[in-house]
Hints:
By secondary structure, the chain is of the alpha/beta class. The chain has one domain: Spore Coat Polysaccharide Biosynthesis Protein SpsA, Chain A (Alpha-Beta Complex). About 45% of the residues lie in helices and about 20% in strands. The protein has helices at about 1-10, 35-40, 45, 60-65, 80-90, 110-120, 135-155, 165-170, 180-190, 205-210, 215-230, 235-240, and strands spanning about 20-25, 50-55, 70-75, 95, 100-105, 125-130, 160-165, 195-205. The protein has a five-stranded mixed sheet, sandwiched between helices. It has a three-stranded mixed sheet with strand order 5-8-6. The longest helix is centred in the middle third of the chain and has 17 residues, at about 135-155.
Amino acid sequence: MFLIVIAMAREPIATYSLTMLSIIIPTLQAENTLDATLTALEASEMGAQMIISDGGSTDATCEIAGNFGAEIVDAPRGRGSQLAAGAKAATQPWLLFLHADTKLGKAWQIEVQNFIKAESEPHCAAVLKFALDDPSPAARRLEKIVAWRCRWFGLPYGDQGLLISREHYDEIGGYAGLLLFEDVDIIRRIGRRHIRYLDTPATTSADRYKKSGYVLRPIRNATCLSLYFAGLPPKLIGRLYQ
């Protein structure tokens, strides 16, 4: 028994820390939300690489990013193009993509590190739990609808983030430079069987739902998604989306 214990002690112990992580956030006129997003991450304290992929902001977005020590990448406007540019600049073996109006819960570091450890031979990607920063019953109903969509259709959206290894990201071709549905496109290439759902909430601004309505906006989104699945080019769908 003593010899067994000694042999185990000599085994190398792998470490999984956030220094293995590049966090990529596409921005455009995001001064109203970016500070809270970066504050919640506390990425500099954890040693993660922070990349802001900016699509030409003229407000204080880049100044805020600089205050947090983030690397700023200039990219062609469009979330797909910006995500791809940010990933290209990333230097770490794991990538976490987030929206600029999304705040992660306090336990995110632990869950991310546990996932990285479990997927040290990566074949899966992970997303977080959709949540809205609105206490209204309508927001809770929408959160349940999103959970149902993820459970039955395996279709999380970009506001749930995406955690994926660099190796896996490159294997599936990364983000396409689409104007819309870049998140749906990459999720379909990952495959629903290879998506894992973390418990940490990714709390996103509810402003767009408050402005457009908790009924009308989801209907519009579902209509646009149906047109995308039917083969209509995202550029044309974008006219309806806007």
